[in-house]
Amino acid sequence: MKKILHDWSDAHCLKLLKNCYKALPDYGKVIVVDANLPDIPDASIATKSICQMDLQMLAQNPGGKERRAHEFLALAKEAGFSGMRHAGCFCLFWVMEFYK
């Protein structure tokens, strides 16, 4: 799922992820590509861009927001996934794997 979860509230994301979990075979995974807000903001262009996107999500999509890594992990766990791994980063977007 590329740039999808940031459009939705936690409740809607949870519904999407639970449906993905049900559809996966044993030991399957969902690949999520989304920006990750840093835990400690800095003055870098990357952080400023992600924060700007967070404000845009707030204005355009009720409940939409950029999330921190621990927020993605919490959503994954609540949906039933056993864990999450950051597989890489490209142009501000993280590739995350949610494991069944």
TrEMBL record:
<dbReference type="InterPro" id="IPR001077">
    <property type="entry name" value="COMT_C"/>
</dbReference>
<dbReference type="InterPro" id="IPR016461">
    <property type="entry name" value="COMT-like"/>
</dbReference>
<dbReference type="InterPro" id="IPR029063">
    <property type="entry name" value="SAM-dependent_MTases_sf"/>
</dbReference>
<feature type="domain" description="O-methyltransferase C-terminal">
    <location>
        <begin position="1"/>
        <end position="82"/>
    </location>
</feature>
<keyword id="KW-0808">Transferase</keyword>
<dbReference type="GO" id="GO:0008171">
    <property type="term" value="F:O-methyltransferase activity"/>
</dbReference>
<dbReference type="GO" id="GO:0032259">
    <property type="term" value="P:methylation"/>
</dbReference>
<keyword id="KW-0489">Methyltransferase</keyword>
<keyword id="KW-0949">S-adenosyl-L-methionine</keyword>
<protein>
    <recommendedName>
        <fullName>O-methyltransferase C-terminal domain-containing protein</fullName>
    </recommendedName>
</protein>
<dbReference type="Pfam" id="PF00891">
    <property type="entry name" value="Methyltransf_2"/>
</dbReference>
